[in-house]
Amino acid sequence: MAAPVIAVVGGGQLARMMAPAAGELGVHLRVLVEGPDTAAAQVVTDAPVGAASDEAAIRSLLAPDGGPTADVLTFEHEHVPNDLLADLRAHGTPVRPGPDALVHAQDKIVMRRRLTALGSPCPRWAELPLEPDAARAALADFLAAVGGEAVVKTSRGGYDGKGVRVVRTADGGADQVAGWIDAAAAGGPALLVEEKVPFTRELAVLVARRPSGGVDGAGEVRTWPVVESIQRDGVCAEVIAPAPELSAADAERARDVAVRIAEGLGVTGVLAVEMFEVEAPRSVGTEPSGDATSSRIVVNELAMRPHNSGHWTIDGATTSQFEQHLRAVLDLPLGDTSPTARWTVMANVLGSTLDELTDALPAVLGAHPDARVNLYGKGVRPGRKLGHVNVSGDDLPEVRRRAAAAAAILRGEDL
Amino acid sequence: MAAPVIAVVGGGQLARMMAPAAGELGVHLRVLVEGPDTAAAQVVTDAPVGAASDEAAIRSLLAPDGGPTADVLTFEHEHVPNDLLADLRAHGTPVRPGPDALVHAQDKIVMRRRLTALGSPCPRWAELPLEPDAARAALADFLAAVGGEAVVKTSRGGYDGKGVRVVRTADGGADQVAGWIDAAAAGGPALLVEEKVPFTRELAVLVARRPSGGVDGAGEVRTWPVVESIQRDGVCAEVIAPAPELSAADAERARDVAVRIAEGLGVTGVLAVEMFEVEAPRSVGTEPSGDATSSRIVVNELAMRPHNSGHWTIDGATTSQFEQHLRAVLDLPLGDTSPTARWTVMANVLGSTLDELTDALPAVLGAHPDARVNLYGKGVRPGRKLGHVNVSGDDLPEVRRRAAAAAAILRGEDL
């Protein structure tokens, strides 16, 4: 057989970080990129330009003129027309994760319905009707039931804090999302409302699953250690692996929740399960949420691809999330997920005052000889994810301090 | 400033393994490859085809039409015309390592002369005269002095055991290298002869040096732990990091020898110093060998680039030799070289009975979930270096066993 060919939709940093893993495994990577200079296009030799919504571009990605046919289609983001994926799969192309699974990362209402049915721990939540008056009434009822404060979300299209808004009865309730309510009525994304979980911190579990292997051949599954994720302005700013002061029982519970979701949704590839840790077991509510409220954790969001909460694995685990994703979608045996250091901390570089992040290399490498700097080759824009730094070590406060300091240098501070 | 551009001569697996490091640092890699399908050409987007001996190709590599000018020229092999490099450097192009240093990795006579002058521990050695009768007489004298057995080497063009021959008085002495003696007289590579060192094992020290930093700004230098290198048929088959049962004093001595060579030769980039470990300090001989024979180590060969003995650093050290080479030639601060595991063992995949090594991925990844498999994308030929496997752990015999077993699967055995 010729070397496997993996087709990836999306040419950002996630596809970029798949490239080293593909090279090591001897696998051919073909990435559909948004333009010739995107993060992935700079490091992938086979990178046709096209839109994720363009059927012809996807079909050519799978079977280009004069190039080898792809063995599998996968993604670095969820914004791909699901009906096209279903059609491709029906005609024999392995699509991994499949459209039936991917929809749960594309539509938060579909996700909440399914997680509730699976008994996964969810916040109290409700769908808002499409009709505006009914939506306003339902939102008012929900706010009253949860104590006057909740989170309204668009079912589709949100990311990095976009499509999410905290709403309070005291501030006018539905008036705060009037535009979204009208948009939903006009055929835009439907809305859901969730209780604002009184969380103590955010956790994430990264899990990988492949079609074969595992118990009774139901699909091999591996998880990495539970991590703590620290957001700033709705964007992941720091990840601590493993999550500090998390009991073995709670870690086991969190990993178990993630595995059940991966299996329940039939995920192939990497799945990131973002979770809230709550102070203590809460009383069981009356809203539809399964056995959720008896747990110390609550599922927040899903991403069905390598995820920011897993960038630490590049330098801090035996197998990175990027290699694991490629192995999973090719149905190759999964790799060991053990951490290689006591602590690994990832600090994101979000925006920079520099014209080019590489201008800071002399300073950051000089000040932090053991920092693992990863730059995405992207143009600088305020708040944009431009790179990250991993630092490993035994002393967590020191590791955190150094990861943050290295990222600050790349943001143009402390130069 | 724009992102740095590094031009590399040679498109084999060493340039291939520079690509992930370049991507992470946000550095643009441009590689002169021997053909469109070489190991590096598969994973480097900017990979013009040309010969290392072609002056026009090298000049275009540095300043292509329509592309950014390279900031530095470096190499994945030593087979580059040195006069061209000297000319480029004279006209302002940083060439790293520079031609004055590189010549010591190109010409073994130049190397031995210089190491002897530096006081580095060398085997007893002698140049053979170009005139055939004089060469035969000199070789006979040398054989008599060292006890009837020695190693004749061509000064240039040898690698992986080629250009090296053991010669014995009992087998006719110079008759065994009659062809080389005639070739040297006809303008071919000159010859040298070295005593056949009664070594107990082979060690290697990898050292990196950059122009700036370090003590008094004389150039920052970092070494990785001393490794043991195990050859089969003159080719590196296995590397154990760190070298087992090497005393701290001997390790310090070996690293010190390598650092002195890097500094004495003015190396920029990665330098591999291959060494013999001998049983015990030997009596001082009469041949020109500095203070060499009072040491437990003797320098065998030099390579002025990332080297097979350093592939373990990709998975077993904080900074890999490939990233370090790029940092060094850009004069960026060097990275931490600490090992990330108690033991890391690299096993080379030398030849295979498979058509494609990727055919063995299901078996090798299934049997060895923590093995770090690295395939070079090269066509299978007997004995060819097709890839390697790194395994890390606490139990050395077990780590060695698993690395060897994983490599055997990739060679098509035990499938």
What do you see in this structure?
Chains A, B: Residues 112-330 form the ATP-grasp domain. Chains A, B: Keywords: ATP-binding, Ligase, Nucleotide-binding, Purine biosynthesis. Chains A, B: Homodimer. 2 copies of one chain form a homodimer. With 415 residues, chain A is an alpha+beta fold. The first copy, chain A, has 3 domains: 5-95, 3-Layer(aba) Sandwich (Rossmann fold), CATH 3.40.50; 124-195, ATP-grasp fold, A domain (Dna Ligase, domain 1, 2-Layer Sandwich), CATH 3.30.1490.20; 199-410, ATP-grasp fold, B domain (D-amino Acid Aminotransferase, Chain A, domain 1), CATH 3.30.470. Helix content of chain A is 30%, strand content 24%. Chain A has 12 helices and 16 strands. In chain A, strands 8, 9, 10, 11, 12, 13, 14, 15 and 16 form a 9-stranded antiparallel β-sheet that branches. Mean pLDDT of chain A is 94; it is low at 283-294. At the A-B interface, helix 1, helix 11 and strand 15 of A face helix 1, helix 11 and strand 15 of B.
